[in-house]
Please model this.
Amino acid sequence: MKLHIGFDDTDSLKGGCTTYLASCLIELLYKLKFVRFLDYPNLVRLNPNIPWKTRGNGAVCLRLEIPEWAYLEVRERVVGFVERSFRGEAETNPGIVFLKGDVSEQVKGFSFEALWRVVSLSRALRLIRVVGGEAYGFNNCRGIIGALAACGETLEDDYTFEVIAYRTRRFWGKPRKIDPESVLRMDRETYPQTFNNLDPETGRILIMPRGPDPVLFGVRGETVEAVLKALKMVSVDEPIERWTVFRTNHGTDNHLRCRCRVAEVKPHMAVVVEGWVSKPPKTIPGRHVIFSVSDGTGEIFCAAYEPTGELRKVVKGLVVGDRVRVYGGLRKAKPRTPKTINLEKIEVLELTRKVELKNPLCPRCGKRMVSMGKGKGFRCEKCGFRDSKAKKVEVEVPRSLKEGLYLPPPRSHRHLTKPIQRYGMEKHGWNFEEPKVFWGRSLADLPF
Ligand code: ATP
Model:
């Protein structure tokens, strides 16, 4: 029997991590001789604009083959394990979902929506009942939403891999010490099969989180081989407790599939809107750059915030009338700020002519003339020519901005943002197959 186990919301800002729980659970299930893994553990990032997420809005699904008689045992072990792990913390709302058989189109549709909008717990619970699944929740049970969404995102379109190395408990909360040279070398030797290891603008290492969670570092890439090679190349001066390879939607733009008109956008949605620049870019305190886009159904502010780095330069080059496609999360209106698309990337589709009014050229000698006063015409300082009827003329100014796609630097990418290097490397289709190497307790377990 096929069994999909989704879980989410098992951690808090104080510590923990849903992927770590997944890694420990995998070990537990792996030891049950009747369990066969049908896929790498799926790490699914959901709508990044959900305000109640802890960090990256990630949920995990394990896809297994088990004998029917073992269902109750597996269910009890998983529920017990999650319950013991989250230790009853009040701000954590774990959810676990069990679905048997093939994932239905309805559940896939639910996941599709959970990637770019807010979906409700009652809808998740109704759907679980309809498809004959089971759900377990703690506290306000909100984790059931993410758990179901993880089951429904079977990653059959584009996907990537991430290997995550975890810290031993005594190091949790302590600063991570990683050899930056080893990361540089790893990046050089595995590019473009791995991505977003470093931020090229600042040199910052991106594979290492900063919080108190058990993740030591994680490397993202196109294949299992690439991320495992990278795992072996990174030097850290603390022991690795365990490592796990996840199949993920990281770096796939999975959340940016909803093309909306301005009138349709709602708070916390991830949207793609096409229109014309209707108010010119303006730098506001905090070095953020804002401008407006309209599409005939309405006008909306767009913001390139300070962390988007060089993207702000692109935005500053826009002029009213440019045709653009903006991608980002919708921040709801606050008392002093209107609702705004928080830019994740922008496509400049068509540049308009930029014209400036300039003094006319002298018809006799070709030099630009000077004004003789408001409404009094122009004279040439070189040859003395005067024309009291001459007016300012429109002159086309060359545009430095080029049409094309622009992204912020990797340091401000969301987990889901597709890096520029992945364009053209997208995968389509996945043959569900038993994963060979996907977790271990030490690097000595690695086959390569
Ligand atoms: P981590 O990345 O460390 O696992 P997190 O950032 O995933 O943490 P959670 O603690 O899991 O954050 O909180 C996210 C919560 O939002 C979960 O309860 C999840 O079920 C819920 N959620 C996820 N996507 C949606 C959505 N589209 N609509 C409504 N709720 C959602």
